[in-house]
């Protein structure tokens, strides 16, 4: 046998051995993620992490995280004082039930202006209606309700459907994304009820939309959305909306809008 034929034979043998080894490895593997026999689903439901969470959430010390949140808000007193805003919610469907006018209830919001000045300033600017041409939260609707998270609102665009938003002109980012601005900090966690966070569509894509949590802990929001405030009064109203509002794929069956907003 000449050298060329020998080399060809050796190559074929190597390929055959490699194929057999790969096949053997597949048969002896521990299975794909979620394969039967690992008990990952039971661990997942029990909050023990499993293979998906890798022990990430169940070890959270919410008391310590809440204490850190308190320290962040306490910075306001030493720097520039505590700033608050309000949102007056109106459920339009209540007018059709016999009342002369729909019920309006207020939610008061405390902002972490010392730790997140730019994010808070964008929110405060949108809470004010300086003239007809300026963007404002007034008239914006709740476009999504997630029972295990909270309520989503803040679309100040003409469509007001939650598909897009726009930051205030004073917060404009780069020319590549003129309607959004960058992430400022993730120092606040979602380890307590009533946290307010920007609803970003990606890294450094914060606009006007935000979410208010109505659950005690929302760890999946940490690191993804920038929390910048919390509800100081009126969380019961939001909990009632989440619990009693009929929704279809998250969209509320009645119009819930911000009738008025401003700075306290």
Description:
- This protein is α+β, with helices and mostly antiparallel strands.
- The protein folds into two domains: 51 residues; 202 residues, Beta Barrel (Cyclophilin).
- 28% of the residues lie in helices and 20% in strands.
- The strands form two sheets. The chain has an eight-stranded antiparallel sheet with strand order 3-4-6-5-7-2-1-10, covered by helices on one side. The chain has a two-stranded antiparallel ribbon with strand order 8-9.
- The termini are far apart.
- About 8% of the residues have low confidence.
Give a count of the beta strands, DSSP E runs of length 2 or more. 10
Characterize the largest beta sheet: strand count, sense, and whether it forms a barrel. Answer: 8 strands, antiparallel
- Helix and strand content put the structural class at alpha+beta
Overall geometry comes to globular
Q: Helicity, in percent? A: 25-40%
Q: Which regions are unreliable across 5 or more consecutive residues at pLDDT < 50?
A: 13-34
Protein name: Peptidyl-prolyl cis-trans isomerase
Catalytic activity: [protein]-peptidylproline (omega=180) = [protein]-peptidylproline (omega=0)
Enzyme class: isomerase
EC number: 5.2.1.8
Task: Give the tags.
single chain; 264 residues; alpha+beta; 8-stranded antiparallel beta sheet; two-stranded antiparallel sheet; 6 helices; 10 strands; EC 5.2.1.8
In short:
With 264 residues, this protein is α+β, with helices and mostly antiparallel strands.
